[in-house]
Structures are given as structure tokens and as C-alpha cells.
Amino acid sequence: MGKTSTIEVLYEDNHLIAVFKPHRVLTQGDETGDESLFEDVKAYIKERDGKPGNVFLGLLHRLDRPAAGVVLFAKTSKGASRISEQFRNREVKKIYRAIIEGVPGKEKAHLVHQIDTEKGKRKAELDYELLRTNEEISLVEVELHTGRKHQIRIQMSEIGHPLLGDSRYGAKSVFYKGAIALLAYEIRFRHPVKQDEWITVTLPDKFGTFREISWKR
Q1: In sequence order, what E strands does 29-157 have?
Q2: CA atoms of 18 and 29, how far apart (whole Å)
Q3: Residues noted as catalytic
Q4: CB neighbour list of residue 50: distance below 8 Å, 6 or more residues apart
């Protein structure tokens, strides 16, 4: 990234902006000092709209650095507070796609684990569905019901199917350097002002990061 012109906007209105986060890019800056999507989006809005002062941008959620996909930001304080409340109340629906090692025993399953967090053991829940496989690796779609750190990575590893490239959680395969085969594919939420209107942001086909895999149904 690095240049504001490279920002890929997936959805935008007066209160919100959803963009594509590439693999290996930080959602928000950290102690490394590396570039972040948050700062790049702020710079993009400032440059595009010719804003003379500071640009408000609210961080609503994060996506692991090695992963890619949809990230939603707020452009107003009203948007930030109302969408943040939806996240706290688990009203926001998040769908992911991941490539895992091997073939899961069930085509669909509901997984529940107790995983370590900064606040001790916490329950983690998700549903996955097998989309396709070539017998060595499999593409699954995942819906989260809790929002634990590294949750998909941990839970898929717990059932013996770590994500491609995720050596931290036991993968023996390689995706590509610094990346894991995890894509935040879709997010659904209530509009912060038009409360009865639901917005769904889905990655368009051009972001079919996993299409190059030789699948067999």
C-alpha cells in the first residue's frame, strides 16, 4: 500500500467507509511503526475531499495482520458509537473464508472451545461449512458467534485443520510469506442512522484471493 490511491473502497456513505485490507498490512499502527490501513484511509479521505484539518476516523474492529478482507471504519462520531454498540451486542454478522489443511470430517459443524484470552479462558463459538476441497486442502466459510482474538485460527487448529501458512497454530504448509489463508469475506450491520436498514458488504469477485487453487468438488 503506502499510496492513498491504492485504497479499495467497498462501501461508503456519510457515516461509514468499508475498505479492503491486503494481507500483511496492519489494521491500526503499533510499536513497529509500520504503515497501517487506519492511517492510509485517513490520508485517502483527506486528500480526496480536500479537508484542511484533521480527519475523523473511528476504528470499529480489527483484522489480523496476516489476513485480508473487509474492514469497516466510521467517518463520524455518531457512526462510531452506534456501530460499536452493535459490535458489543453481537448484532454485526461477520463471514470469513479460509483455506485449511486437510478435509474436515463434517461438511458443516458448530464448534465450541474454551480458549485462552487476556481475561482467562473464554468460550469461543463459530459455524463452518465446507465449500470445496482437493483432498489436500479445503476452502471453508466461517461465521463467528464470538469475537476472540485469533479465534478462527485457534478453533480450526483445535480440530486438526490449521489454516494454510499459519505456523503459529501448527500449519506445516505455506501460503505466502507473512500471510495466512484467511479472508474477511462479508460484514452485515444496521445502518447507524437508518436503523431499520441493513447493509451487507461483500468482497467482489476481483478479490477472489483463493481462486488460483486447483479445486475439485
Answers
A1: 58-59, 68-74, 93-101, 108-117, 120-133, 137-144
A2: 18
A3: 64
A4: none
What are 95-111's pLDDT values in tens digits?
999 999 999 999 999 99
Contact 151, 126 (CB under 8 A): yes
CATH code for the domain in which residue 91 is found: 3.30.2350.10
Give domain status of residue 209, yes or no. no
How many structural domains comprise the chain? 1
Containing structural domain, residue 87: 4-204
Residue carrying C-alpha cell 494454510? 164
Q: What is the Cα–Cα distance from 81 to 58, expressed in whole angstroms?
A: 9
For 137, the grid coordinates are 486442502
Please list the helix, strand and coil fractions of the chain in percent, rounded to the nearest 5, in that order: 20, 35, 45
- 8-state DSSP, 23: T
The answer to the question of residue 53 being in a domain is: yes
The answer as to whether 216 is a domain residue is: no
End-to-end CA distance of the chain: 35
Q: How many CB atoms lie within 10 A of CB 45?
A: 20
pLDDT in tens, 38-79: 999 999 999 999 988 899 999 999 999 999 999 999 999 999
> Residue 73's Cα: distance from chain center in Å?
13
- Asked, for residue 36, whether it belongs to a domain, the answer is yes
Q: Indicate whether this model's pTM tops 0.85.
A: yes
**DSSP-derived 3-state class of residue 193:** coil
CB neighbours of residue 140 within 10 Å: 24
